[in-house]
Structures are given as structure tokens and as C-alpha cells.
Design a protein that fits this description.
The complex is a heterodimer of chains A (209) and B (222). Chain A is an alpha/beta fold and 209 residues long. Chain A is built from six helices and ten strands; from the N terminus they run βββαββαβαααβαβββ. The longest helix of chain B is centred in the C-terminal third of the chain and has 30 residues, at 192-221. The two termini of chain B are 25 Å apart. Classes of the chains: A alpha/beta (209), B mainly alpha (222).
Chain lengths: 209, 222
């Protein structure tokens, strides 16, 4: 389903990786590991279609993602290292408006249910600017369990700033997602037990181009 | 698709309401610039009538540039811009929604504020009507052209000055026909030609700008 062919990424003068091939089918999870600056985030942004690779292609369902941006985007949930939520909106407004921009109408009940899963049920009416870092991260992760069905998850350090209970919740969400035939690509710095089926890709770091 | 357009507008208008200080500042900036000119040139009514329309247009232009910082910069900094680009909707729809919302909180209030201001410059009823019509037709072009500049300078250091240098020359036609329409009415001629040209500029910008903005945003996000 998700296929990367002969990817090469050069940032500045440095070649982060080259000749990288990835192939993931339903229910598969890819854990990208590597030191700081090894190109993990760049790889994720290439897979999401935010960054164009120096060489190579990314395909989703056999189609180049730069040609089918809308279809690809509607099947993708991306949690970058920026949360992508607005400080001046309440938690509920963030969740519901984000879904609305995606063309999905999420009722208050459904949104509250998603927030409850991440332990934010008390904070629906609170402005995001009054939340802690970890809570903001949870609001961003709420897009994984909202009513918007996404087949592919691309998560950049999703466990950052989360407490151990929240890590377990996200882990459970991930397992459920994979069990229903979803695909996930993620980076994680802390030692987290990822599903045993997760493949591991080690980025070795940079070489001079 | 239109649901996404409305959602983006609702989101941006709600944010403008929460950050209403920013919105009010732009309007106050416009009013202060317009008010300060008569203090500089003196209270001679004939002079004021002559420079009224031009002053209002220059102030509207500057106010719209000041307001450009609101357009994409915050969404870029907090990551919600990349979320919207990945939302599975045509990126141009998202951009159009954001520009419409931007116009509603800058161009529209400026157009309304022109009514009392035209009294201040003693423009007379008919030229004042033309001025309001010209602003209503021309300010969308200012928002559209400005958005291209804002998208191009996203994430750059000193982007504020650069955006002024980029956008001001491109908005000169709007300024010329906008002020020209009022002058024509004041001189007893028909302003139809100027107004049509203003509308044409806005429509032309509406056709071309979203495409340019989307391309610029994609480059800025890399």
C-alpha cells in the first residue's frame, strides 16, 4: 500500500540517506530509528508529501502521492513534531474544526469520546493555551481516535512529553489501528515497546554528498 | 469541498474573534493614518477634497499590508498549516477560505470606515458612494495579492519588510483605479470604467493568486 522507491534526501550539503526502499502493507508498522540529525523527520515529511525527496518516489495504493494529494491526504493522519493545534481555540473546537476542514462533521459527543480516551474529558472547554505540553500533545494525538478514519498514520515522536499512562493509551490505539489493517510509520526516541510485528529501519546518519 | 471552505472560514473568523486586538489594531491603524494627513497638509477644504480618495486608498493599502502578518504566519509556526495542507482537500480551497476570512476582518471594516472618513474630507455624497464602492471592489484584490507575498515570505527573517517591497508595487493598479474612480465622480464624469477595472483586477487576482499561493506555501513548508 505504502511504497517508497529509491529515496534520496540531501539537506544542505549532507546526504541523509539514499537508495532507501520501503514497502508496507495493511497491518504493518515501521519504526524509524536513528541518532539526532539522522534524517528521521525528513523521511517522515517525505512520506507525508510535505517534503519532496531529492530522488525517488512515494506511492500510495500504487499511485504517486504528488499526483493524488487529496486522496492521499484524506487517508493520512499526520502528527508532526509541531502539534498543529491553535492556542486560542478550546480543545473541543480544535478537534471539531480540524475534522470539519477535512470535510467530516464530528458531533460534540464523538469529539468528547475521542478526548476521553486520551484523558482530556475535563478539558473540552479549556483554551489550549492553558494546557501543559503533555496535554497539548494529547490534543494533537486525539486526531488518531477521532471519527476521521485514516488508513495511514505518520507519527513523529508521538510519545514526546506524554506521561506513562498516555503512552500506554497511544500504544493501545496503535495496536488497534494495526489490528484493523491500518499502517503506521513512526519515530520514537524513548524505549517504548512497539508491537512485536513492527519492522525497524535504522538510519545511520549522514555522509557528505 | 464547500464544507471545507466554510470550515476554514469559521475557524479563521473564530480565531480573529479570540485575537480581536489584532483585528482592531489594523482598523485603528487605517483610521490614524487617514486622520493624520489633514493635520499635516492643513484644513483647506479644497485641498482635502482633492487628496481625500488618494489618502484613503494609500491608508487602506498600508493597513492591508500590516494585516498580512496574520494570514499564514501563526498557522505556519504552530503546525496547523501543514495539517490543513494534508487535510485531503484541494489546497486552493483552503487558501480561498483563509483569504475570504481575512477580507471579512480587514477589507470589509475598512470599506465601512470609509463612510465617516469621506465626511471628514468633505467628499460629497456621490464621490463618497463611489469611494465605498471602489473599496468594496478593490480590497479583495489587496487581500489576494497580499496573500501571495505573505506565502512567499513565510518563515523568512525580516519577512515583514520584504513582503512590503513585494506587494506594494503589485497593488499600484488598484490604487490608481481606486482613486481615479472617485476623481472621475467628483469631476462630474462616470466612474463605471474605473470600477469595472477594479472588479476585473479582483477577479483576475482571484483566478491566479490561489494557484501561486499554494505553490509558495508548499515551498515554504519544505
Amino acid at each position: 500500500m505504502l511504497q517508497a522507491i529509491d529515496l534520496e534526501c540531501v539537506r544542505g550539503e549532507r546526504c541523509l540517506f539514499q537508495g532507501l526502499d520501503i514497502e508496507l502493507g495493511p497491518g504493518q508498522c515501521l519504526h524509524i530509528a536513528g541518532d539526532n540529525g539522522a534524517g528521521k523527520t525528513s523521511l517522515l515529511r517525505i512520506l507525508a508529501g510535505l517534503l519532496s525527496p531529492t530522488r525517488g518516489k512515494v506511492r500510495w495504493r500504487g499511485e504517486d502521492i504528488t499526483r493524488t494529494r487529496e486522496e492521499y491526504g484524506s487517508e493520512l493522519a499526520f502528527v508532526g513534531h509541531l502539534n498543529g493545534i491553535k492556542d486560542d481555540l478550546t480543545v473541543l473546537e480544535n478537534v471539531r474544526l480540524e475534522a470539519a476542514v477535512r470535510g467530516v462533521n464530528v458531533s460534540i459527543d464523538v469529539a468528547e469520546e475521542a478526548l476521553a480516551r486520551l484523558g482530556l474529558e475535563e478539558f473540552g472547554e479549556v483554551l489550549v493555551r492553558h494546557l501543559s505540553q503533555g496535554q497539548k500533545r494529547r490534543v494533537a494525538l486525539a486526531r488518531l481516535c477521532s471519527a476521521v478514519p485514516a488508513r495511514l498514520w505518520i507519527l513523529d515522536e508521538p510519545f514526546n512529553a506524554l506521561d506513562s499512562r498516555a503512552v500506554e493509551t497511544v500504544y493501545a490505539l496503535l495496536e488497534a489501528h494495526l489490528a484493523t489493517g491500518g499502517i503506521a510509520v513512526l519515530t520514537a526516541h524513548q524505549k517504548v515497546d512497539l508491537p512485536s510485528s513492527a519492522q525497524r529501519l535504522d538510519l545511520l546518519g549522514w555522509a557528505l554528498a | 469541498m464547500s464544507a471545507a471552505l466554510l470550515a476554514v472560514m469559521r475557524r479563521d473568523l473564530l480565531l480573529a474573534l479570540r485575537q480581536r486586538g489584532d483585528v482592531v489594531n489594523v482598523l485603528l491603524f487605517f483610521i490614524v493614518v487617514v486622520t493624520i494627513v489633514p493635520l499635516g497638509v492643513g484644513p483647506e477644504l479644497n485641498v482635502l477634497r482633492m487628496i481625500g480618495a488618494g489618502t484613503v486608498w494609500v491608508a487602506a493599502l498600508l493597513a492591508s499590508i500590516v494585516s498580512l502578518a496574520r494570514m499564514f504566519a501563526q498557522d505556519y509556526a504552530d503546525g496547523s498549516l501543514e495539517q490543513m495542507i494534508l487535510a485531503g482537500q484541494p489546497a486552493s480551497i483552503i487558501v480561498i477560505g483563509k483569504i475570504l476570512a481575512h477580507w471579512l476582518v480587514t477589507g470589509a471594516p475598512i470599506t465601512l470606515a470609509a463612510v465617516p472618513i469621506s465626511v471628514m474630507f468633505d467628499l460629497g455624497v456621490e464621490p463618497a458612494g463611489t469611494l465605498v464602492a471602489a473599496l468594496a471592489l478593490g480590497t479583495p484584490a489587496l487581500s489576494l495579492i497580499g496573500a501571495v507575498g505573505a506565502a512567499l515570505t513565510l518563515g523568512l527573517r525580516g519577512g515583514g519588510v520584504l513582503v512590503t517591497l513585494l506587494v506594494l508595487p503589485l497593488t499600484v493598479p488598484v490604487l490608481i483605479f481606486g482613486a481615479g474612480a472617485v476623481d472621475a465622480t467628483a469631476g462630474g464624469l462616470s466612474a463605471t470604467a474605473d470600477l469595472l477595472l477594479l472588479g476585473g483586477l479582483s477577479l483576475g487576482a482571484a483566478a491566479l493568486a490561489p494557484w501561486a499561493i499554494v505553490t509558495a506555501l508548499r515551498i515554504s513548508l519544505e
